[in-house]
Write a structure and sequence with these properties.
By secondary structure, the chain is α+β, with helices and mostly antiparallel strands. It folds into two domains: about 100 residues, Phosphorylase Kinase, domain 1; about 180 residues, Aminoglycoside 3'-phosphotransferase, Chain: A, domain 2, CATH 3.90.1200. About 35% of the residues lie in helices and about 20% in strands. It contains nine helices and nine strands. The strands form three sheets. The protein has a five-stranded antiparallel beta sheet, sandwiched between helices. A two-stranded antiparallel ribbon has the order 6-9. The protein has a two-stranded antiparallel ribbon with strand order 7-8. Helix 4 packs across helix 7, helix 6 packs across helix 8 and helix 8 packs antiparallel against helix 9. The chain starts with 8 loop residues before the first helix and ends with a helix.
Length: about 300
């Protein structure tokens, strides 16, 4: 018996990249004995909240092929074993269609507005904890791993060839022109945003989005990019979706306070600008040329 699913247009685009022409419900049923899908979200991968026939609930993430999935899973396993608030890994990555699947324990949590300063500090301090606890396997990819100016967009709906985004490309090129850093790389979470935090009361009880968000890069890149997107969620009426320059500065300072060392602020600024450019390119497609939060934030840095 196949699992019944309702896929919207974006879901179908994601599914095509991962499952090809295979029936998604049937493919999932080959991995876990699920009787109900109670949650579905699509972005770089597809996340399915599934109720199994034994009554338990799991999160199955379907992923496009990419380097470092096994290493990212090893980091998640190590973090969970060391008490970091991430879901307990259950299975994978295992082959699924043209991609892979990773199955985790399902953990409930509510999203919060991280423009609130105490919550921002909590996110900065938790990132510092992650960087301190995470092993650093060499097979992990860089944040936004790329061969050209930008990596391949994380969803098929984004058109990075739009000519009205050439100004974004110019900003990204300047931001990525710093000489290679000689500092040690650290493991971090490359999508450190409000939509991936589950709160209980005023505590971050769980961090979501594994293992494909695990990356190995300079601390300035990990922290700089997190300082831009930490308020980002489309599930709450939060505006703006991107941190203000003052909020980004506060996030970085709170991270530095937590780790007891100063970061190279020129490289932090470059990482902030580059991620804003990538997100602005995505936003340009979603808004069909109209200007949104990320483009406005990028123009503010010109």
């Amino acid at each position: 018996m196949n699992l019944r699913l309702e896929l919207d247009e974006w879901d179908r685009l994601s599914a095509l990249a991962i499952f090809g022409e295979r029936d998604v419900g049937h493919a999932l049923s080959q991995i876990v004995d699920a009787e109900e899908c109670f949650f579905l979200a699509s972005s770089a991968g597809m996340l399915f909240g599934l109720r199994l026939r034994d009554g338990s609930r799991v999160a199955l993430k379907a992923l496009r092929p990419r380097p470092g999935l096994r290493e990212g899973r090893d980091v998640q396993q190590a973090l969970w074993a060391r008490g970091f608030p991430c879901p307990r890994p259950i299975l994978g990555p295992v082959k699924l269609g043209d991609g892979y699947a990773a199955v985790d324990q399902w953990v409930d949590g509510e999203q919060r507005d991280l423009h609130e300063p105490r919550r921002r500090r909590a996110a900065a301090e938790l990132l510092a904890e992650l960087v301190a606890l995470a092993p650093r396997p060499k097979g992990l990819p860089r944040v936004l791993e790329r061969t050209g100016l930008f990596p391949e967009p994380h969803h098929p709906r984004f058109d990075f060839g739009r000519p009205d985004g050439l100004w974004i490309d110019e900003v990204a090129a300047r931001a990525s022109s710093l000489p290679a850093a000689s500092t040690e790389f650290v493991a971090g979470h490359s999508d450190w945003g409000a939509r991936h935090f589950g709160w209980i009361d005023e505590r971050i009880a769980i961090v979501y989005d594994w293992p494909d968000s695990v990356a190995l890069d300079t601390e300035e890149t990990i922290v700089g990019q997190a300082s831009v997107v930490f308020p980002s969620t489309w599930d709450l009426p939060v505006e703006p979706k991107v941190a203000t320059p003052e909020e980004s500065e506060a996030f970085v300072a709170e991270y530095e306070e937590a780790v007891g060392r100063q970061l190279d602020r020129s490289r932090v600024a470059a990482a902030q600008t580059y991620l804003l450019a990538y997100c602005a390119r995505c936003e340009l497609s979603d808004l069909d040329g109209a200007e949104g939060n990320f483009q406005a934030a990028l123009r503010e840095r010109l």
